[in-house]
Amino acid sequence: MPGILFDLDGVLYEGDSAIAGAAEAVAWCRSQGIPHLFLTNTTSRPRRALVPKLARMGIEAEATDILAPPFAAALWLRQHGAGRCALFVANDTLEEFAGLPVVDPEYHDHPAAVVIGDLGQEWSFERLNHAFRLLMTEPRPQLIALGLTRYWRASDGLQLDTGPFIKALEYATGIEAVVTGKPAAPFFETALSLLGTPAAETWMIGDDIRTDIEAAQRAGMHGILVRTGKFRPQDLGLGINPDDVLPTIASLPDWWRENIQGEAGDR
User: Fold this and answer.
1) d(Cα 78, Cα 96) in Å, to the nearest integer?
2) For the whole model, what pTM was predicted?
3) Which of 103, 147, 192, 228 is the most buried (most CB within 10 A)?
4) In the 8-state DSSP scheme, what is residue 163?
C-alpha cells in the first residue's frame, strides 16, 4: 500500500493554528489504513512536545509517529560512535540526546562532533563564533546539521532557520556538514525505513518546494505541494515540478481517491 509523509508546519498547521481540514484529512488517512509518518525540521522542541500540540488540533499522533532531526541526529551519532558532542540546540531538545556523551556546559572539552540546531533568538555572534572555534580545533570535529531549511514562517513573518548558520560554518571552516534533517537523502531514507513503504510508492506532502518536494523527488518519492505555509506563487517558476499541487491538505482525501485508489481499481 502507498504511504504518506506529512510535513507539519505549513501543511497541518501554521504556528499554533490548525489549517482548516487538516485534522479531517489525517483522520481519513488513518481510517483508510494508509501508512503515514509526520516529518518536521523542528529542532527547538522534542517530538514528545509535538504530540499535545497536534492533539489540541484534533490530530492523533504518538512521538514514534514523528521523525525530527534531533532524533535522527542522535541515531546517527550512536550508529557511528561519534564520541563526545557539543550541542548547540534548544534546551527542550536536549532530551533527544539523552545517553550520548557530551562535553561540559562551557565546552572546555574538545568535542568529536558539533551539533547545530535552530536556536532562534538565542543565536549571537559570540555563540556562532564559539561553534566556529570548536570546529577549528584539532583533530577537527564533525559538523552535524539538524537540517538545512533556509527559513520558516513565524507568527510575525519569515524567520531564518538552521541552514544559513550551517552554511556560514561550512564556509568558514571548510567542513562539510552531515545533515540529519530535510532535505538530506538519509533523513528521507530513515523515514522510509520507519514507514515500511518503498520510495516509489511514497508521497511527500509539503509546503517547501525545495526542502520537501525537490528533496523527496531526488530520494525517489513523489511530491505534492500545498499552497499554504511558506508556499509562494513564484515557487512554481523555479523549474521544480511537483507531482501535483493542492490548495490545502483538506483536498487530500478527494485527490487520493481519484488518483491513487482510482488507479488501484483500474489495475
Assistant:
1) 12
2) 0.80
3) 147
4) H
Q: Please answer whether residues 4 and 36 qualify as being in contact, where contact means their C-beta atoms are separated by less than 8 angstroms.
A: yes
| 55 within a domain of the structure (yes/no) | no
The cell numbers describing 240, all together, are 521544480
CA 113 – CA 158 distance, rounded (Å): 30
Asked if residue 122 and residue 93 are part of one domain, the reply reads yes
Same domain, 219 and 172: no
How far apart, in whole angstroms, are the C-alpha atoms of residue 164 and residue 158?
13
Alpha-carbon span 111 to 29, nearest angstrom: 44
CA distances from 37 to 7, 47, 218 (A): 9, 12, 19
Domain that holds residue 26: 3-41+183-266
Q: Which tens digits make up the pLDDT trace of 22-66?
A: 999 999 999 999 999 999 988 888 899 999 999 999 999 999 999
- Strand segments, DSSP code E, in 25-127 are 36-39, 66-67, 85-88, 113-116
- Reading the block at residue 151, the C-alpha cell is 527559513
